[in-house]
User: Fold this.
Amino acid sequence: MRVNSWNGWDPLTHVIVGRADGTMVQAPEPTVVRDWPDDGFPAGAYGPLPDDMVQAANAQLDAFADLLRSRGIRVDRPDVIDFGRPVSTPDWEQGSMFGCMPPRDVLVTVGSEILEATMSYRSRWFEYLCYRPLLDSYFRDDPDMRWEAAPKPRLTDDAYKPGFWPEYEALGFDEQIARVRENDLALTEIEPLFDAADIARCGKDLFVQLSMVTNRSGVDWLRRHFPEHRVHPVTFGNTHPVHIDATWVPLRPGLVLHCGEREAEEDLVQYFKINDWEIVSAARPAKTWDELPKLCFCSPWLSMNVLSLSPDTVCVEAGETAQMELLDSLGFEVVPVPFWDVAPFGGGLHCSTVDIHREGELQDYFPKRYGRF
Ligand code: ARG
Assistant:
């Protein structure tokens, strides 16, 4: 086996697919307080997601894994640990962990390197442990695999803005977007913090969303860690930015899918355009906010959280008809995959996976510079 993946679209041959088992509505922590009074989890309450939901999600995850295998793709699965256990470091105690459905959040593959992200929630600090048996086996089986972990963050109270959410929620849309553009959000800059799912890989260019879980220091760390790449911090007009893969999803050289509701910065748009990329607005999601599954902390835009199997084949949630038709009209073979039962466990088809091997080498898809890019 060989670890190799430079972008999100080259032919996929080896992938990790997450598991729903044991996933928690996590215990409160400085910037995460779940509040679902109608579904058994009023603010401050925490505990495992209901069994029937776990079974339904696992059925979809297993079927997805089988579908990938039927296409000749090797699929590995993480180790489930006891996410209900309280955890601590010398700096803090946290009532529970979270789960291991979305490997995309924790790991990023860049060429022959797999990098473990810092993560920025205390409940997710130990999540890398679920992937260690796999990472260890890749390290043994591939003599060229580079196994890296970003500096484990301390996540003291000083890593978070005190009283962030009440103050932020009281702002209007424009004020919130101004804060997003400045990345004046939940995290301070006391240490580098990022989730892997804020990174969109396009060969030599890595686009990293500044978000509720990724700060400037985190992007700066990535820039210094990948000196052969161009690492670009980017923002979108999304009041609650968490992970780039329901906002800006490159599908093949020259085509990126964009959540039109979340405006891209003008320089980013121009950078894509002068390099002959087409920016296509994702189709309206099939679900409204009210129709999301219970205990779901993601948005209806999981509709565009698609997984490319190659530059002309893409897996799309099976109920997202408009999205499937749009991709079909753009010349893709669309593979429908039922997946909404997985959403409450942390995301869609892209979130639930992480590439270990795609054919293809490092390429520069953006030869022309523009503005700060
Ligand atoms: N926060 C995004 C949205 O709701 C979902 C992104 C999920 N991505 C992930 N890798 N877990 O629009």
Observations:
- Residues 12-358 form a domain with the L-arginine/glycine Amidinotransferase; Chain A fold (CATH 3.75.10.10).
- The pocket of arginine is lined by residues 102, 104-105, 197, 242-243, 245-246, 298-299, 301, 346-347, 351 (CB under 6 Å).
- Residues 57 and 342 are 5 Å apart (CA to CA).
